[in-house]
Amino acid sequence: MVFTNKVVLITGASSGIGASCALRFAALNANLALVGRNVENLNNVAGKCEELKGNRPLTIKADISIDEDVQRIIVDTIDRYGKLDVLVNNAGILIMSGITGDIKNFDKMIATNIRGTYLLTQKAVPYLLETKGNIVNVSSVVSMKPVPGMMAYSMTKGAMDIFTKCTALELGPKGVRVNMVNPGPVNTNLFTVNSLSPDQKEQFLEKISELLPLKKLVKSDDVAKLISFLACEDANCITGSSHIIDCGVMLGDPYA
What we know:
By secondary structure, the protein is an alpha/beta fold.
């Protein structure tokens, strides 16, 4: 599995799954365009990628909830590399919010998790058609399994799932594959619990891991490996599909 001369655009690349994807694709010799809001973290990730590959990725400070930023992401990527082979839609925000929560929280998550992803994909499609490239979207198991306090976030991930399938159906006849990964709990900065100290957060996550059949949380590196497989030629017959990576979350607790 190699991505020599392939251009891979990754959103949310400054931390978590996105950062792991950047390192994974760099190790596989891809040319990278890394998008994030935190410039310091983004540059740190780019530096690690440079150590792996030998040349520095393109870094783009951008917020995909802002239309002008979305356009700039595509323009900068094409200006640098002249093409696009793989789009990894990873950027997302999680705010704990239920039906009685502030509607502004819902709007923020819709703007990034759905609208921004939709618009970026729309802008990327003409270039993906030229290369017969592919898209990998990062969803979540909460699109299929309700979790208390995560109603609004779950709705955005449910929308991501059907967005993936509809896009795959539309672009498949034109040679572009579209798939998604649905991770369970991953210990990243996205998965935070309000008002908990770092020690309390660690204890909380340990308790969650003990409830899972595999007795551990998903690692962002493992998600990145799955994403890179879906993006490679070995997966040339896979499109419109969901790939759960959750250490058994969806199996439920047999002793509950």
